[in-house]
Amino acid sequence: MIHASAYKDPHHVMLFFEEITNAANHQQCLTDRVGYYEELKSNGKVVISGNFWNQDKNFVIVSVSNDDELLHIIENDPAIKQNVLELVKAMPF
Predict the structure, then answer these.
(1) Over the stretch 53-70, which tens digit does the pLDDT of each residue have?
(2) Can you tell me the distance from the alpha carbon of 56 to that of 20, in angstroms, rounded to the nearest whole number?
(3) Distance from CA of residue 73 to its chain's centroid?
(4) SS3 5
(5) Which residues, 6+ apart, have CB-to-CB distance to 77 below 8 Å?
(6) How do beta strands 57-64 and 46-51 pair?
(7) Among 49, 53, 60, 92, which one is least packed by beta carbons within 10 Å?
(8) Strand partners, 12
């Protein structure tokens, strides 16, 4: 992964996630995740998010100031915390 600090501050990072398990708490976790990113969006941290059609993959574009902020966003994603999704790629731009 290219470190976000290799880019101008602030900058955007496109995060790609893939489903890794269909745990019992799967649906609740994904519902919590939507709320998490909606809150970040209202704070100006999420530019756009969505799903890839017909796939268990989705993306989020976040606006961050540094690597620590990016890691905080990723580590607090409910689906990451519950091992429902994994981050498969982060593309700073």
Answers:
(1) 666 678 999 999 988 999
(2) 9
(3) 7
(4) helix
(5) 17, 33, 36, 37, 85
(6) antiparallel
(7) 53
(8) 63
The rounded distance, in Å, linking the Cα atoms of 36 and 42 is: 10
8 Å CB contact between 21 and 84: yes
Taking the C-alpha atoms of residue 63 and residue 81, their distance in angstroms, rounded to an integer, is 21
**pTM beyond cutoff 0.85:** no
Contact 84, 19 (CB under 8 A): yes
Q: What's the pLDDT tens digit per position in 12-68? A: 999 999 988 776 778 888 899 999 999 999 999 999 988 776 666 789 999 999 889
Complete domains list, the chain, with CATH: 4-92 (3.30.70.1060)
**Ordered alpha helix ranges (H), 1-93:** 26-42, 67-75, 78-81
